[in-house]
Amino acid sequence: MATKTSAGILMFHKSDGGIEVLLAHPGGPFFKNKDAGVWTIPKGVPEPNENLMERARIEFEEEIGVKAEGELFPLGTVTQKSGKVVHAWAMEGDLPADFEARSNTFELEWPPRSGKMQSFPEIDRAGFFSIEEAAHKINPAQKEFLDRLQQYLGNQ
Hints:
156 residues; alpha+beta; Nucleoside Triphosphate Pyrophosphohydrolase; six-stranded mixed sheet; two-stranded antiparallel sheet; 8 strands; globular
């Protein structure tokens, strides 16, 4: 079985309260009432042999609705509980004041075994969180990206 791979961007900015990071909440009925441990960096699956950094930029724009313009620095990879390997880069930036998540959608039979297909957004909301808040909200394996970001910024 092939390893599942994703590539994404952890946007951050500096505020009076310290570092804040942008996380996205997955859309769809499975995550509707879940919060802790389900938020993620905006990410997506690359095509075979596709440049992962470019895929990360494309996915950021598709899921957040804003171009990922800016210098990227690598945060490495983590392996999630599902076995998916996530490649990430960090980028300093901000969102427009009138920001509203406008992601792509996916089709899902819902309710299960109903024969009815419904469309759901890949991301139903996104926002900036302090590192401490993000550590509680983010997928547990991706917490390593927060640690690596802090280490990188501390070494500047």
